[in-house]
Specification:
Blueprint lengths: L7 E5 L3 H13 L3 E5 L2 H6 L7 E5 L3 H13 L7 E6 L5 H10 L3 E4 L4 H35 L11 H14 L3 E8 L2 H8 L1 H17 L6 E6 L2 E7 L3 H16 L14 E7 L9 H17 L5 E3 L10 H10 L5
Parallel strand pairs: 1-2, 1-3, 3-4, 4-5, 9-10
Antiparallel strand pairs: 6-8, 6-9, 7-8
Helix pairs in contact: 3-4, 7-8, 10-11
Length: 330
């Protein structure tokens, strides 16, 4: 029985002598090593538990072809491939091997055992480091999700935003909700790709967060929408804060990173009035969302104030907002 943390090497070699020699070296180094007579067997039944593949090159053209097929397998995507050649490869041969999908190569020359041992250790060490980083990132994202943090932008998530608005409502002091939406965001994704779209979301989140006053809250509501909870403001002050956020985003430039030269946002502002208070989180968010929609219809890249809360307002919009709040998102 092999120890759980023992690293697993696959030795592919058609010749019995080379296969035996490599197996002996790997096992003497304390690795688990499995012999395979040909790459076809691995391609037919890939083993995801493998940490590194050693493949002896007898026929260069055929070996490179099989190397490419191995690299294309999803189960072996993160597995290194080290080619072992009879003679030191020429520069063009080494380049062809790397382009075919190999990660490294070594040859049976004087002192090859010392060199191969070192290369094995380096590749296996690097794989463990990559796995550790991947694991830590996953744990960090899980912690962020549980803490109400949006994993893409690092801003608060929808649930945490709802809690922040509720705390402000409970405080019964003037505050404002700013509903922010990136203009023409679908066009950004369609034109520049989703990677640039994600970058745009991150940059906008950083900008809105960086422009916050002390005590204000910023989070991603969903998609390309963000919400800011601005404390202790009257309507004219809330508009001024929203306009500052709008100008800050408009100053962003992503052209050097392969994105659009300019990004703009539309903002709807709803102010909590202690004389006519919104009864629920959904109510004040709905008013801000309605103002945002009007800002979009007015040409985008602007700020508009919501109508004051009125008990006579039809409840449909508030009910729709409550459904969005109840959606299963962080």
């Amino acid at each position: 029985m092999w120890a759980e943390d023992l690293q697993h090497l696959l030795v592919i070699a058609e010749g019995q002598e080379a296969r035996t020699e490599l197996l002996r070296l790997c096992m003497n180094e304390g690795y688990q090593a499995s012999p395979v007579a040909g790459a076809e067997l691995v391609i037919a039944k890939p083993d995801a538990s493998v940490d590194l593949i050693l493949m002896v090159v007898d026929d260069a053209g055929r070996a490179l072809e099989k190397c490419g097929e191995l690299r294309a397998l999803e189960a072996l995507r993160s597995v290194g491939i080290l080619l072992v050649t009879p003679q030191p490869p020429q520069p063009e041969q080494a380049a062809a091997a790397l382009l075919a999908g190999a990660d490294d190569y070594c040859s049976f020359h004087l002192g090859w055992r010392i060199e191969l041992r070192a290369r094995l250790r380096v590749h296996l060490r690097n794989k463990r480091m990559r796995e550790a980083v991947h694991r830590l990132r996953g744990e960090r994202n899980n912690l962020r999700s549980r803490a109400g943090i949006d994993t893409l932008t690092g801003a608060l998530g929808r649930r945490a935003l709802g809690d922040a608005v509720q705390r402000s409502l409970d405080g019964a002091a003037p505050f404002a909700v700013l509903f922010v939406d990136i203009d023409h965001f679908k066009r950004v994704n369609d034109t520049y790709g989703h990677q640039i779209g994600d970058l745009a979301l991150q940059r906008v989140a950083e900008t809105l967060t960086g422009e916050r006053r002390a005590g204000d809250v910023c989070g991603r509501y969903g998609g390309e929408e963000f919400v800011l909870v601005v404390s202790k403001v009257q309507p004219h002050e809330a508009l001024r804060v929203a306009e500052r956020h709008r100008r800050a985003v408009a100053a962003l430039r992503l052209g050097a990173e392969g994105g659009p030269e300019r990004i703009t946002v539309s903002i709807g502002v709803a102010v909590f009035d202690v004389g006519s208070p919104d009864p629920t989180v959904a109510s004040i968010l709905s008013r801000a969302d309605t103002a945002l929609y009007q800002a979009k219809r007015s040409g985008r890249d602007c700020v508009l104030m919501a109508e004051p809360y009125s008990p006579e307002t039809p409840p449909q919009a508030e009910q729709a907002m409550q459904l969005r709040l109840d959606a299963k998102t962080p």
